[in-house]
UniProtKB/TrEMBL annotation, chain A:
Positions of region (Disordered): 247-293
Compositionally skewed regions (Acidic residues) per UniProt: 249-259
Sequence ranges assigned to domain FUZ/MON1/HPS1 second Longin in this UniProt record: 204-365
GO MF annotations, alphabetized: guanyl-nucleotide exchange factor activity
A Pfam family recorded for this sequence: Fuz_longin_2
Domain of life: Eukaryota
Annotated source species: Scomber scombrus
InterPro entries: FUZ/MON1/HPS1_longin_1, FUZ/MON1/HPS1_longin_2, FUZ/MON1/HPS1_longin_3, HPS1
Biased composition regions of type Basic and acidic residues, renumbered to the chain: 276-288
Protein name: Hermansky-Pudlak syndrome 1 protein isoform X1
Domain FUZ/MON1/HPS1 first Longin: 2-158
Family matches, as PANTHER family: BLOC-3 COMPLEX MEMBER HPS1, HERMANSKY-PUDLAK SYNDROME PROTEIN 1
Biological process annotations from GO: melanosome assembly; vesicle-mediated transport
GO cellular component: BLOC-3 complex
UniProtKB/TrEMBL annotation, chain B:
One BP term from GO: melanosome assembly
Pfam families recorded: Intu_longin_1 (PF19031), Intu_longin_3 (PF19033)
GO cellular component, one term: lysosomal membrane
Region annotation Disordered: where it falls in the sequence: 267-355, 412-441
CCZ1/INTU/HSP4 first Longin domain: residues covered: 13-118
Transmembrane annotation, as ranges: none
The organism's place on the tree of life at top rank: Eukaryota
Protein name in UniProt: Hermansky-Pudlak syndrome 4 protein
Amino acid sequence: MKGLLIASESAEVLFHWTDPEFQQNIQDKYGAAQEEGQGPPAFEDSISTLFAPIIISCSTMIDRMGESYTCFTTENNHIYVLHQFDECLYIAVNGDGEEGEDDLKRKIYVMKKIIEVMFGMVTLSGNLLRKELRPQDTEHRARLWKHLQSLLETYSHLRESDQSFLVEAVERLIHPTLCEQCIEFLERRLVQQLNSSVERAGEEVLHAFILVHTKLLAFYSSRNASSLATSDLLTLIIMAQNMYPSNIDVDDPGPEDVESTSGSGPESFYTPEPSPTDRDSSSSEKPVRGSTPVFEFVDPDIQMAEDSLQTLEVPPPDPSTPRRVFLEVSQKEGLYPMMPHSMYCLPLWPGITLVLLTKIPTSAVAISVYTYLEAFAKLEKRLSEGQEGSSATRGQPTIHEIRSKLDKFIKALGPSEIQSAQLQNVWTEFKNRAFARGGPGFNKDLIPWCKNMKSQLCGVYRQCFFIDSGSADIPRRLSPSLQERAQSMVQEKLMDWKDFLLVKSKRNITMVGSKKYSAYVGKILQNIAHFYPPCIGLDPVILTYLEEFPGLIHFICVDRSTGQMIAPSLNITERTTSELGKGPVAQFIKSKVWSLVGTTRRYLQKGYSTVTLRDGDFYFCYFLWFENETGFKLEAGEMPILPDDSAPIGMLAWDYYRKLLRYYSKNHQGEVVKCYELLTVHLGVIPTEIILQHCRQLASKLWEPSRNPLL
Amino acid sequence: MAEIMPPESARCTFFFLYDGSKVKGEGDPTREGICYFYPEETPIDLQELLCGQLAGVGRCVSELSSSPVRILRMRRSKYAIRMKDDFFWALGCSEEVPTVSVCELLDQLINLFCFYNGPIRQSYQLNSQVVLAARWALYLSHLLAGTSELHHIFSCLRTIDSTNVDPLLLLKAALILQACQRCPLVLAGCILFRGRVVSTQMTPDLTMKVMVHESETHHKALKPNGPSTSSSFGGAVSSTTVFLTMSELQYLQSAPVDRELKFYSTPNKDALPKKTRLSRTLSDTPSSESEPSDPSASQSPLKVSSFSPRLSSSDNSDSVFSPAPSQSTANPLHPASPSLEPPLSNGKKTSHEAEEALDESYYHSFHSNGDGGSRIHDEGDVSALEENSSHLNGADGDAACGTVFDLRGTECGNEESYGDKASRRGNGSAEGYQAETGDLPPLSGVSDNADEAPLVPMTLYLHRVKGLVLALLVEPLFLSDTASMEEVYHSCLASLNGLEAHLRTISPGAPAAPGLSIFAHFDCIQSTLTSNLSGRPGGAPEHPFVRAISLLHSHFCNTETLQEAIIRSAGVAIYGTRSVAQETYFLQHGGSLRNSGIPNHQDSAFSLPRKARDKLLKHGVNLR
């Protein structure tokens, strides 16, 4: 029984996802509360009615106590996790024991991340986001929610089955020569050719990568591109997986499987659409320029000049239409979150996908909008803290710089097709209040105007980046033929490798010699036979390591500075019928590994960077440490101790490790600091000294290609 | 915007009981439903806000999940919740307190209330809210009273520091309790010294409850209202009605030899306890009728096999105090317990036999309750017993030595009728209980509510000698049974005096300087804590230790298979290990903790298990 709900402060449902069980539960409960003789109510109404008291109580607590609920647990172990992001309340529910509180919190944060990647800075305006998430048009709403639901399901599936989504780091396919060749191919052939084509319509390919299932075969970034954050890359992998589900559960697909998976084609396309005007009155409310500001207390979004957008047609779902994604860009001047990109996801074969990320011609606007948004947000913050006059306006850039830049910015928008009249009006009014001699100046009364400015800027941003492909006269995207060419170029390049890659992605680090392997596993089974009957299979162990690491069952090693991980594959599907049969033991070990990751995160959150556990017949180790670029081990620093309600530790939704590295680097100025993690699972009978020796060897070997036996 | 001002203790920022049945209508003000709110000085609008919102949201969630809410967490605090019928309890604390510990604290609090006041709904019908509010406050302050943070984490009993006490004194205390149990009306007892447990025969839960009454404040608070009593023993003796759950009662009524739950039982070398009867002087008759203790034993959830009877034959050093067990039955002419003081006067021999008979029939009839077949046996027993007990009374009459019990006013009407019903038939509680269910006197404690576990009224008898208190759980009949009461009183008076004198002279003992290592050893079964922590709150070197323990304890509680753990931050490494019977935590200061955090088998953190084993052996804790 699982569910996730996003609600506005007024208890309006902005999004919901439920599994069938939870849906049934809601319907039963609601049906019981309803009177006889009425037809079954719309599901959305039921869920909204049942959750309304919780949502309202939440906002009451925030208003009156400055506190908010984070979690409820019932005696039958149903868990409700709540989190408020600005004006949206997220509630995640689990009633089947498959997810813990941390998992639910993570799910909420991931959902928020997905929404940010899809809607960019519009998420910064509660009103606009509410409209985006809950379009008036029910058909449009159903399509959007279906899309979000399927992204959420894809994520949940990956988190439960894929180690790279468990630890939230990208897994590379380990085949150095092929990887190198592919990177070279992407650089010299593909990207160069695309970026020099006239058919690219002003777009520029910044990043290109090839995914085999969820694993990265090759990744190339053009020279003038900023690096792609791990958080964004993981989200893009979720999106790609959602578009072309790789059906990883089906092992070694036979010909019939290939057919069926290829049939799963691109999912129904979703592109954000303009929210239709809900109030015809908005035009009449449009203030006449220069009139006294009568709209001071009017909801700012009413004044959005969006009615004019109504004329734009919803783009037809065309497979060659790119996704608009909003990703972080780091430039010399700083970090710009949620900058618009186009994402082209080109299926090569089932399970193998080429992804292109392009910069769109108007992306400079986004940087400006973000700069202004940030300036107004800072100003608002200072004003609400009670600062006034010059103390409120200090900071970089100064308000006067902002003023002249914004004047120019609005002027530049003027002739374009972007509706900026409203922005112009609000800005004029803002200036009158803030800068006019004898005017009110910078004080608390300016706060609503800061908010209004932010809304207007978000509105402009929304116009710029949500609907561009709609202006059908000049399609702003790589032309379909160019896309096709890219696709076939890479297909041609990888034709001979494709089957190998598909297998390799499932056995990235694999056993060598299965006889030796089965003998080894037999020994393991003898040791843990009282857990499970014998004659069951265990797939995860790397044979290469057998002689060197007797007793080692599994490990995961993560380089947190690059966001990459290495681990033996854990194949536990029904069809993995190796010489050992199917694998409840592997399933058992898998569940242990999954819970171990959760456990170590809890300790890490409280400042413990080394954890060893003797649990049942297993011995688990976890280590986190820092090195400098040359591999010199740096002294363990004091780790930050985070409160219980802090964001989940990981790299997907919120990059804990980036913050950790920044925190740690304070004492290591001028040095490149790298952060590593190692998790191991050993048999409990192995002496601790030997286990620790193994850990040390693994830690020092895995990331050094010259000594890594895997490479 | 109201700010939350966390009152003194982070362990309990808020506690309230809210009665939803009083706020049903639209117009009913929330305050009507607030039965008790801690801290009492909280502004009423904040009280209303918390009660109204938490109870409301709790009900909504429990309806969605068809199950009551247990834990409610906020950003900066967490609440243990109990929902029963229309009652809603919430106990809030800061987020550092382990969730298991808050839930335990709330349960303890509610159980404590029910122990002294009976079922919740009923006590609110019988008593004014003000009176009961004072009791909640009392129980809460008792539970929060100044012990260390570690005590709070484990919710353990406060015990005397056994390292400074001569083990013989502990044995003596145990023997006093055993001596009291010769009176069949006495179920079990414990001896407390200055608010700390010296010896107990009861489960930790029950001991904890009994300890509240011992505190002087409670004594005063209850006097005007509670059915407490004092006799002419110069105010040294008092009693009050208490309510036991069925499982507690069953445990107490199971064979005494199986529940010999001694506080400082030295760990026995042979782990499997023999079912020895040596510790019990009086019930050693090898008769088939003593067997019914077995089925009862299986009913008792608290019977744990690792309870080794203290007085097993291997403890030969104790022979001075130990009543020679087999003698009493083998040769009734040579009464046992030579060293027990004061020696009973002339009635001794016969009373022995009488009690024996009482014992047996008592258990038998309880466990064959409702079983027609064994009825005949019962009759026979009872008749024999009546004969004997009259004999006993006669004997005791002689032994009274002029002490006059002033029993007038000691029996409230309820107990009278209860006594009448059960008359002088020795098989008290089972029969008495049946009688009660029959005609439901208002205080019977047999719940009128179907899903509320029935509570059985019993009496808590307290005998105080300065700082020392003997607390006995007795059948309500006991108070009206002058002879038994007198006998119990006199049989232990001298011993108690002696024990008190000894305990008083023991200096608290300068807490040994913690040195380089700190440990905490929690005995899950006896719910006791041994530690070399100084106990000062907020000690600098201890804080990381306590913080780690609270994390590890939660982890141990949530993961059954977890046996040991080492966790390390940059500054400290802590080792924790547990078995079904204990949890032990160990921290070593000094040494070269400066390291890179990379796996290293020479790392001092990984030698902690070995060091812990060595160090703790010196403190009598064997981790092997």
